[in-house]
Amino acid sequence: MKGIILAGGAGSRLYPMTRVMTKQLQSVYDKPLIYYPLSILMLGGIKDILLITTPDDQPLFKKLLGDGSQFGIHLTYKIQEKPNGLPEAFVLGEDFIGDDHVCLILGDNLFYGDLDFFRKAIESQKNKENSLHGRVFAYYVADPSAYGVVEFDKETKKVKSIEEKPAKPKSNYAVPGLYLFDNTVAKRAKSLKPSPRGETEIVDLILSYHHEDKLGVEMMYRGLAWLDTGTPRSLLDAAAFIGAIEERQGLKVACLEEVAYRMKFINLEQLQQITASLPKCSYRSYLEKIISEEL
């Protein structure tokens, strides 16, 4: 299983914040936004990750994350010249995906809670006997009209329809920016035609699996938080949410060095070396506390 983070786009809804720096490098409480989706892939056990960025922002991402070796992962980069739709991530990443399965996460999506559902979905996706070649997730929201919306049959619980940003949603279940697909996804993405807004649509890609009875939809139940940070208000809400969790628990969310250590991507000695290279700050103090507890 490989991972792709789509961190391109114009970020126009966050203007003027995004005039000089993409939204995925904006801060969510005490860390850049990109840390959160990257941590999700790492917590899913995914170590080979492609980061798709705009031409202007790629040097900043490389300065921040490098090749990922400090986290025990392998990061490669690809440029998206202009936002042509989410499925373009698979076209740009075709060679990267190769013969493997792939997980796409959007660079402005934040998840917090028990990720056991995600790990199980990954294991099921990799099972060669599995007949489902694509998997998406369904999350109950108050206003689903801004997202792809899944309608379920009330009796069989099977998917009846999936619509992109419907004016009159048929359910309250939105599709978050987290997707699992097999290696036919690039070929499928290439065959998509742009919608009236001039971009290919992720819902059309999902439907290509659904029409072949190869799509699985996994429920995200209460207790798991999903935050979309595409507007100033939602970015502020995400920062307040993370701040409240961290201050209450004394534990950091999406601390990549800690995730790498807990997932055994790096050992304690490597964690000590990384921590020693950081400037004196609360982030370093947090890692030092972890190290002291492990010694």
UniProtKB/TrEMBL annotation:
Domain Nucleotidyl transferase, first and last residues per copy: 2-242
Nucleotidyltransferase recorded as keyword: yes
Record's keyword annotation contains NADP: no
Record InterPro entries: G1P_thy_trans_s, NTP_transferase_dom, Nucleotide-diphossugar_trans
Reactions catalysed according to its record: dTTP + alpha-D-glucose 1-phosphate + H(+) = dTDP-alpha-D-glucose + diphosphate
Cofactor: Mg(2+)
Sorted UniProt keywords: Magnesium, Metal-binding, Nucleotidyltransferase, Transferase
GO MF, any single term: glucose-1-phosphate thymidylyltransferase activity
Record NCBIfam families: rmlA
Protein's job: Catalyzes the formation of dTDP-glucose, from dTTP and glucose 1-phosphate, as well as its pyrophosphorolysis.
Family of the protein in this entry: Belongs to the glucose-1-phosphate thymidylyltransferase family.
Official protein name in the record: Glucose-1-phosphate thymidylyltransferase
